[in-house]
Amino acid sequence: MRGPVPVNFGLVVFPGFAALDAFGPIEALTALSLMFPLKLSIIAQTLDPVSTKFQQQSSAGSDFGSSINPTHTFASPPPLDVLLIPGGAGTADPSIQSAIDFVAKTYPSLKYLITVCNGAGIAARGGVLDGKRATTIKMAWWPETAQREQVKWVAHARWVVDGNIWSSSGISAGLDAIFAFIAAVYGEEAAEKASDILEYERHKDSSWDPYAVMYGLPTGEA
After folding, report:
1. What pTM was estimated for this model as a whole?
2. What is the pLDDT of residues 82-137, one digit of tens each?
3. List of residues 6+ apart from 94 with CB closer than 8 A
4. H helices within 43-96, ranges in order?
5. How far is the C-alpha of 191 from the C-alpha of 40, rounded, in Å?
6. Is 216 helix (H, G, I), strand (E, B) or coil?
7. Element (H, E) at 177
């Protein structure tokens, strides 16, 4: 570890965000907060509750989802060291532009940026990932990566680190990425202890990616 470790974490939320993208890493960080003093802020366009449900999301006619109460707005964010960006169906809605603008404005002052699944698209569309290596969800690889050709997209990766930006593959990959982040920044002992608290067996090889194989994605950078 070098210098003071990050304390202030922010989670970006928007209508239709994917629950595990957000709450998987947050649960790991909650375990970490038993070992280090951490603070979490939930940041959205307004202070109204934000639901994981998205319009016309279920062809089965389901009404299923959860919601979270923001603590801050994009217009009035708290001091942040680390910003976590989940993905979800809501990234396709035009209202996501407010999150894109917030990420682009906030990134220069961050110690770290972490994206999960197609949350990478939010950072990419804000220009934050230009010239950097990153990954995203494999099931929707082609439409997601087409949003920003200036990014060096890496298909075969559970997660990718480029400088202070950590990006993970689809949904559950966020857990492996956050534990790798904890190990790198707070120490392997803390990562092991946190994963044991969650009773989660980590994938420690960032190149392990059976879903890139499943979807026949190319090797190398896009």
Report:
1. 0.95
2. 999 999 999 999 999 999 999 999 999 999 999 999 999 999 999 999 999 999 99
3. none
4. none
5. 18
6. coil
7. helix 173-186
At 18, the amino acid letter reads: A
- CA distances, 19 to each of 8, 54, 77, 86 (Å): 21, 12, 22, 8
- Contact present, 159 and 177 (Cβ < 8 Å): yes
Provide long-range contacts, Cβ within 8 A and 24+ apart, for 212-218: 212/138, 212/141, 212/155, 212/156, 212/157, 212/169, 213/156, 214/138, 215/138, 215/139, 215/141, 217/138, 217/141, 217/155, 217/156, 218/155
Q: Which residues of 118-151 are buried (b: 16+ CB within 10 A; e: fewer)?
A: bbbbbbbbbebbeebbbbbbbebbeebbeebeeb
d(CA 121, CA 133): 13
Q: Which residues, 6+ apart, have CB-to-CB distance to 146 below 8 Å?
A: none
Q: Both tokens of residue 194? A: 């946190």
Q: Considering Cα of 147, then 150, then 154, then 158, what sign does the dihedral take?
A: negative
